[in-house]
Amino acid sequence: MLDFDLAEMYGTETKALKQSVRRNMERFPDDFMFELTRDEYNSLRSQIVSLDSQGRGKYSKYQPFAFTEQGVAMLSSVLNSKLAITTNIKIIRAFVAVRQLILNPPIDKVSELQSEVRELKQYIEEVFTDYNDINEDTRVQLELINETLAELQVKNKALNKPRNPIGFTASK
Fold first, then answer.
1. Which of 48-52, 97-101, 147-151 shows the lowest per-residue confidence on average (mean pLDDT)?
2. Does residue 170 belong to any structural domain of this protein?
């Protein structure tokens, strides 16, 4: 968060916030707070179409400070007004809520349904594949049975063909 946004939220001037921070620089290591370069600040300003009615940052002598979550938490020890303390609590809670959202995104019902449909399609494909495999096995077994029956019929015909009588036959 930038110093002028925090100053507005805390109900103080940006100059006063910066003075408090500069007086307590040992509380703000580089991973808590840093000063934007002119190029960084200009790239941010180019994304903002117009300045507010007060012309915030229009003729700033110093580049703004950017505070991390830990830096915002440390501001509560530097700024002691009641408004600053309650605002700081709200900001920290917002950081925690954003972190929770990132770690545990809300369940999207449509995505959940799409995922379930995909799982069902995959299951059905597996079942039909297994079913087709069973049908193929059954078809092969039926072909073997038919071939065996055909062989038996051929043997049976060979065994049941009319035989020449054996022995003496009386002529009529």
1. 48-52
2. no
